[in-house]
Design brief:
The structure is a single chain. The protein is mainly alpha-helical. The protein has a domain of 211 residues. It has 18 helices and 13 strands. The relative contact order is 0.11.
Length: 498
Amino acid sequence: MRKLKIILLLLVILGLVGAYVGWYKFFRDEGIPEWITKDPDMRFKYGSIGAEHEVGLPYWIWYVIPRVFGDKFPGPGGYTSLGIQWEEGQEIPIGFTKRVIGFARIGNTCSSCHVASWRAKPSDKPTFVIAGPNHTLNLETFFRLLVDVAKDPRFNSDVLMGEIRLVADLSWIDKLIYRYLLIPITKKRLIEREQQFAWIYRKDFPEWGRGRDDAMNLTKYFMIEEPMDNSTGPTDMPSIWNLQKYRPEKGHFMNLAGDSHDARSVIMDSALGLVGARPKSKTEFLGHIDWFEDYLGKYPPPKYPFPIDQAKATAGKLVFDQACASCHASERTGTRVPIAEVGTDRGRLDTWSKEAAIKANKVVREFGLERKGLVEEPLIGYVASFLDGIWLRAPYLHHGAVPTLRDLLEPVEKRPMSFFRGYTVYNPIKVGFVTTKQEADTIGLTDDREREQLREDVERIGTKFDVSQRASSNQGHTFGTELPDKDKDALMEYLKML
């Protein structure tokens, strides 16, 4: 009997030790580091919203993917070749978060798509602007990359562990966990995404390119698990500063097509898209939503960083009041303009429906989350946007089919038929980013080396946008196109001040 008790005691001890090791290696949550939580801007750029639980990648797998699969990336630089932005001195890029939940995991945050960057010349370091549109991010290529590397024969424990050993001194138990659990499970889960991402492999759909996503199709195929249809409607990443300007009681709607009722709904739905499932902790998740709503509600738009001709801007205010204010500085601002009136490409409208909105709202309610939610009615057009920080929101129109403000003020037949998106050098003459080699000689660069660097980089780094492709038309929004050149110049000078 005594021997049996000893055996039982040993089994209990072993069970407790095993349970502790299992909890410690797979479930212990070390939370968000203080250097992130104490600084609101750092929290926005690197703070967790819970995405690591369900869709986070094990840190060391994420780390060695560019080392093993460099041939799968669009160019040198690993993740930065995808337009993912990386601040000097930081361990991970902007828009990524590292959190230990048993083991270190990498997840994404809202800042993946909502931190902008610009440079005055090619040799400058980028200036990062919180809450701006990340016009460099090649999100579609990133999605495909994760599936493609998982399908590659090199994605196996021998190859990945061989690379991990070169950069990390893992304990024997962590080596076993990576080899026999994390690598096989990660491979399986990434490959499972292929079916949901099937539409981004279609050759008859245009590439999203840098700075765009197909937001409502992502919602359809992931949140409500609709079967793939024949719609495509990539649009620009939006700016999300000063969200308190949207007032639902004044008839304002959120999102480019006015398909969401208010800022809280947009923030919550976007966060759910990153989390990829029902939040593990409703309390923690809603705490993040409250914080984002407050932070982004008050976050100011950026000031224009180049000189402004004040006299010309004053004259431009008069032009604006006559030609633009009726939509962009009036009771109509923030409300939907019928597609027949604005005349822009309708591809984005056709990716969503009343029925999809009803289903998505039902999913969120079943998560136990309350918000005003998505608008359960047909979409009729696009929202007349507020113009705060408009200088940094290039390219223009809802889907970025016009590269600069000056081009937007030209008749449709004079607008560029193709250009390159995603280069960060700014063109203060035309108000927008550099999109062609020819601009090396027109934006005020005085150094021959800078001009040559721009010519080399703009097409190498950028992705080509062709207005002849589906859902890519640059037609519509012809307001102001008949103004005299003098008035157009003055108007652009005023718009820099907004």
